[in-house]
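Why do we care about 3D structure at all? Because function follows from shape, and shape follows, mostly, from sequence. That is the central idea of this module. The next example makes it concrete: a single protein chain, its amino acid sequence, and then its structure expressed as C-alpha cells.
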Amino acid sequence: MADTDAQVTVGQTNEGSLARVTKRFKEWVSGIHGEVVGAVLMVGNTVVAVGSGVPTLDDGPATEGTDTYTTSADMTTAAAIAPVPTSAKKSRLLQITISVDTAMSVTIQSSNGTPVVYQKFYMTANSTVIWVPRHPPLLNVADERWNGLASASGNVAIHTTVKDG
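And the structure:
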C-alpha cells in the first residue's frame, strides 16, 4: 500500500475493533512523509478520527489575490474569468471554483493569440469542481488574462483567485 493510500476494512464494528482501527489510523497518519493536509477516518457517516500530516507549502487559507466572480448562460465563446494583471506582469491562477447546471467540459486557457490550454474539467449536470493547484500555473505572456470556455450552452458560474506572478 502506498503512503498516499489508506484503506482499512472493519468487519464487525464493535468498540474493541474500532479502537484498534482508530489507533492504526493515527499511527498511519503520523508516519506519512509527504504533503498531506489531513486525513479523516469515517465509519458510515460518522467521523471517528482526524489526523494531520506534514504541513503544506502553499498559501492555504491565507491566500492573497484578486477574486473574480463570473456567471454566464452561454460560455461557448471564450470569456474573461479574471482581471488583466498589473502592467507588464503575468497572472498566476491560485484557485478556481466552477459550477454548471448542464453536462459540459470547461476549459481554462489564456486569452491572447492562440489560446494555451492550462486545464480542462469534464463536468456532469448540476456539479461543482474546486481546483487549488499545488503549483499554480502562470500565464506565459504578460498583460493577458485567464479565459473560460464551455463545450455546451448552459449556466456556468466561475470564481477565480489570481495574483500577479
